[in-house]
Amino acid sequence: MIQKTGKIKWFDTAKGFGFVVDDHGGADILLHANVLRDFGLSSVVENSVIVAETVETERGQQVTKIVSLDLPDAQTVQSDMQIPQGDFSALPLLAARAKWFDKTKGFGFVNVFGSSDDIFLHVEVLRAYGMAELQQGEAIAIKLSDGPRGKMVVEVRPWDFAIPR
User: Fold this and answer.
1) With the C-alpha atoms ordered 79, 100, 142, 147, is the resulting torsion angle positive or negative?
2) Which branch of life, at top level (predicted)?
3) DSSP of 98-122, one letter per residue?
């Protein structure tokens, strides 16, 4: 096994894989969805910095374990959707599930466990926290705030984010 540092080139949850560009050049490194899930994510945004253990296979290099994953420096939560800005650190993380999310439309809705109320989730919030999309029923941890049309997600994390590692 060799530890490599690079950036996420792209990741497609429907295909179940994506690629990492090695900081030291060479061929792209395959990142399979199972490895990403083992790290606690179902998707990842392009240009995230990844440190990973890799192995050489017949088809080229492949990630076997993610050591760390950091968001792009320029990632911000800004859009035409008037996403609330501010310090949300004091808000509690709530357990939730994705009701549905459409990457093409750029939004979806989630439900906090124990409630059927729909809560708006914009794709830019997902991207700001390193995710590209959500699958229906996927468990996540969220922080809520009041938006122009009701409650909306202002922070989203993998479901186990609050569990000490």
Assistant:
1) positive
2) Bacteria
3) EEEEETTTTEEEEEETT----EEEE
